[in-house]
Amino acid sequence: MVNFKLNGKKISVDVENEMPLLWVIRDELKLTGTKYACGIAACGACSLSVNGELVRSCVLPVSSVEGKEVITIEGLSNGTLSTLQKKWIEHQVPQCGFCQSGMIMAANNLLKKNPNPTENDIKSAMTNLCRCGTYPRVKKAILETASELKG
Amino acid sequence: MDNIQNESKRRFLINVGTISGSLVLGFKAPTLLASEKDEFPSELTHWILINEDNTTTVRIARSELGQGTFTGLVQLVCEELESDWDTTKPEYADVNMHIKRNRIFKSMSTGGSRGIRDSQQYIREAGAFARNLLLMAAAEKWNVNVDECYAQKSHIFHKSGKSLKYSQLLSLAKKIKFKSDFIKLKNPDEWKIIGTSPQRFDIPDKVNGKQIFASDVILPKMVFASIMSAPVFGAKVKKIDDQIIKDDKNILKIINNETFVAIVSNNWWRANNALNKIKIEWTKTDNDNVSSKSISDFLTSGLETESSPIARRDGLPEFEFSKANEIIENTYSSGFLNHATMEPQNATVIYTKNRVDVWCGTQNGESTAVAASKISGVPLEKIYVHKHHAGGGFGRRVAHQDFTEQATKIAMSMPGRPVRLQWSREEDMKQGRYRPVSKIKMKAGFDKKNNLKVWSAKQSDQSIAITVFPKWVKNGIDLINTRCFRDNPYKVSHFLNEYSMRNTHVPPGFWRAVAHTNNPFARESFIDEIANKANKDPYEFRRDILSGTKDIHLLDAVADKIDWYRKTENFHKGIAVVDSYGSYTAAAVELSVKNKKIKVKKVVVAINPGYVVNPDAVKAQIESGVIWGLSAFMHEEITINNGKVNESNFNDYPILKLSETPEIIPLIVPSGGFWGGVGEPPIGAVIPALANAIFKSTGVRVTSMPIRKLGFSYI
Question: pTM to 2 decimals?
Answer without folding.
Answer: 0.95
